[in-house]
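User: I'm putting together a teaching handout on how multi-component assemblies are represented. Below are the sequence lines for each component of a complex, exactly as they appear in our records. Could you produce the 3D structure of the whole assembly as structure tokens, so the students can see both representations side by side? Please keep the chain order the same as the input.
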Amino acid sequence: MPSYQAPIDHVRFLLNDVFHIERHANLAGFADATPDLVDAVLSEAGKLCEGVLQPLNQSGDREGCVRHADGSVTTPKGFKAAMKTYAEGGWLGLSVDPEFGGQGLPYVISAAVGEFANSANLAFAMYPGLTQGALAALLTHGSPEQKATYAAKMTAGEWLGTMNLTEPHCGTDLGLLKTKAVPNADGTYAITGQKIFISAGEHDLGENIIHLVLARIEGAPAGVKGISLFIVPKFMVDAAGKLGARNGVSCGSIEHKMGIHANSTCVMNYDGATGFLIGEANRGLNAMFVMMNEARLGVTTQGLAVSEVAYQNAANYARDRLQGRALTGAKQPDKAADPIIVHPDVRRTLLTIRAFNEAARAFVLWSALNSDIAHRSADADMRRTADDLLGLMTPILKGVLTDLGFENTVRAQQMLGGHGYIEEWGMEQFVRDARIAMIYEGANGIQALDLVGRKLPRDGGRAVQAFFGEVSGFVSQTESDPAMAPFSGLLRLALGDLQKATLWLMQNGLANPDNAAAGSYDYMHLFGLVALGYMWGLMAQATLKLKADGDTSDAIATRLIVGQFFMERILPETRLRLARLSTGATTVMALPAEAF
Amino acid sequence: MPSYQAPIDHVRFLLNDVFHIERHANLAGFADATPDLVDAVLSEAGKLCEGVLQPLNQSGDREGCVRHADGSVTTPKGFKAAMKTYAEGGWLGLSVDPEFGGQGLPYVISAAVGEFANSANLAFAMYPGLTQGALAALLTHGSPEQKATYAAKMTAGEWLGTMNLTEPHCGTDLGLLKTKAVPNADGTYAITGQKIFISAGEHDLGENIIHLVLARIEGAPAGVKGISLFIVPKFMVDAAGKLGARNGVSCGSIEHKMGIHANSTCVMNYDGATGFLIGEANRGLNAMFVMMNEARLGVTTQGLAVSEVAYQNAANYARDRLQGRALTGAKQPDKAADPIIVHPDVRRTLLTIRAFNEAARAFVLWSALNSDIAHRSADADMRRTADDLLGLMTPILKGVLTDLGFENTVRAQQMLGGHGYIEEWGMEQFVRDARIAMIYEGANGIQALDLVGRKLPRDGGRAVQAFFGEVSGFVSQTESDPAMAPFSGLLRLALGDLQKATLWLMQNGLANPDNAAAGSYDYMHLFGLVALGYMWGLMAQATLKLKADGDTSDAIATRLIVGQFFMERILPETRLRLARLSTGATTVMALPAEAF
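Assistant: Of course. Below is the structure of the complete assembly, with chains in the same order as your input.
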């Protein structure tokens, strides 16, 4: 059975030594986040994830969710108790405004905890994760009454949330959606239609389920400009906050999936269910985007999280498994064989995963900190820049970290040879679970299109220019330091590739949008590589500072080697990505559809 | 439910127009392989695979194999009848010597049919596939009596075969194996020990199962030089060929795996089972290698095969699924949306898979033809060159085609969005099934080590020099033709990268074998890219010849575009692989084991 240990030390290093969260003490909630408190939070979260959630991961996968004839759904053994523990610990509300029962801590802390939970048990973590996404949309766009009715219960994890977008004929293209909302006399709406792929759509983990549902009000314009967002509670809630009658929404079936078996993926049938409009009519997509962006960061974290736990188990195996001898002579001649970690190709594989994990964690926390700044800073310029960067990076985070996270689970599985393919060892579950993150919340090809088609040109390229400026400033500032040269020098080359690619896209995408789209996936990955390389630059700088300050721990030397591996072996892929996208759309678009 | 159509036209093009099998009419069996006969064989094989095997693929995955309390194993519904049909059609013996009941056709035909079977139902195809591997070892190393006893029954598919290598503590490192063989007075041996991960170890598909088992004769030298190979039939066979008593071998349990559920992966217990030495004592590894090389080509084909069927289903979906609009304006304005195949990134994905599939198929058949020449040519020089190339290419075929084949199943799954993750659609099964091919018959990291450590330096690099000579001769001969320039020019660059990498490995691997091992995986993929690029060169040349001869079919234009995509977008990865491996072992080996 696989094991898991939360990477608390690395998070602490990132928060304190790399991102210096103490410098943001002027932001709401940050002053409370003293190093001691953060340590306590991380340590408690680690214990919970290691001790409560992780032991249910494999059994949850085997058991799966069961839908009964009455439409109710039972989650695997232990999930109900785990959810109670998780909710009562206040983990859903870690960064929620105290007005609604939260602890008001920085979102960056909540993001770190989210990684632990997803490493320990991805299928479980989706239940609170989706609730947090729904809550974010409610707090941003809901009326005071709606917040008063739902927010505290959701923060407390007593009521859970979902997001209902997809319909059988409409996934990416929400403009096609048909679910209809007919106004009732009392100002509510009767919602009718079918939604599919609804994660956590029905289950037994909370007293109520608050569905946020996209639907089209009768007579609304066609396309995405006629979509509104509704709150549809499973049980109606009266003025006193007591649960009332069952609403007209039910789970028609659950899907049999490749992975995340312990999360119920439901077909949801709305039969004149009572819905409450949230935000403005026909502006539902706008409200939904708050939730979707939150959810995309959550899914990003899943890519990292499964890569981390897969790494830990692959490394443990590689240290233990005796097989063959080192090429340079026996390392443990007293034993029948050497552990396979003596082999360069095993180390190459492990370092590939680890170099990603550490940079990806930095990238997630850097982005979460930007989210904090964007939401909490008093300085409009800072808010704007942070929001620009977060908007730009969201598709890159989601697309790149889930792609690479999945690939890493495959690499980690490979380290166990035949055992990696056997359910008992748990590695193949990581592969199956990680796979969904590339698909949901906008398939990664859609993220690439969002990046190239929307995020890049937005505001005349202001966000991308800000990022280029930040990275090139960092390079200029550090490359004269010989200890930093291996990082800064290669980062400069990679940034150059990204700048060339950006220029190419701007010039050729204008002439023909297919040029930009044909290169979008390579561009997204090229951008991701530079962002991860920049994170390694920041981490190397902070590590060298600690070293200069007298830190002689093994972690210092290890981190610099892992970083160097990233710069030497992984970052140079930027050149290939640039070469590919520069070939344009001619060949890609040359064939008629029937030739495929 | 997914569908499958055997790519008969492409195989025909490869055999006739690219590899000109008619030029080898002097080889045994080739004269019989007239275009008409080959067409008939391929067409019958296609029908069988499409009509009988493929419909059992998804149900076989769901049902899996069941082991009963008495140790017997039941395969999924329909498998028994399908095996009977497959066996009675003579498909196991397609290229087996008529002396043992085979049809004696070229192995290259059998390899093409093997792809169809693996596309249709990989878990099923393993049963006859392993039998063919065991049979090859028997025919090469068995005594006349052993051949007389077993070969015809195995050729007929009445008795099936297995290979028993792995033990709990010993996978890659066979020197550690403990299963023991104690000589009996009658010249047989009593075999005792436990084998794990034995594919098709027990089932209900044949009257008998002929296990080929590696064991150590009492008193034999330690390590790989003390291993012998034994025939251990499930049921003893008397002099008249009749089945007798049950032998002392049984299935202790079956594994629960990520995929290939319909193939029984068994723990096999040998309790003093009667075994018959095959070949010389203590030379078992040598005999096993015949089987292993055959099996590696089989596994190679699996990588291609699943990639092909996954492609077909992804392309069908992309043509059918209406969602969103083309960036350059609606293509089907009368419908609610355009099919997603209008999108450049969808096409990029499909072309990535297809450009691999066509080149991989060529590479497999090119290698199978080399196997025919190596085994059947009267010319010693031709035999030697063919054998050199086959030996060199075996790890590349296995490592690269199964890696890329798996990646392609993931890409194809992605094309279906959320549906790709749902069991019902069948795409996720392709991913789970294809995954095993990277692991068994020598995990791909081992293939890379075999390439760099053994195949490359063998005979002073004779094989690799022969390949470089062949490719550079092709480039020189074709690059002056303007129509070939896009192929030859890029192939020359890629070959240059491979030659530089080879030189780097020779120079730096001598100084420190860790340098070679740290770059082995990148080298294997670099080599594979050049081989696939060379196949595209050959296919482009043959296509242009057909065009010049007046062929105006759509297939001509399509093939040239698909090939151009490969050269532009995929082949340039050689440069990255070269850059990576040239970084050597220093960083990779810098950390102590406990730092991981």
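A couple of points students might notice: The radius of gyration of chain B is 24 Å. The first helix of chain B runs from residue 8 to 18.
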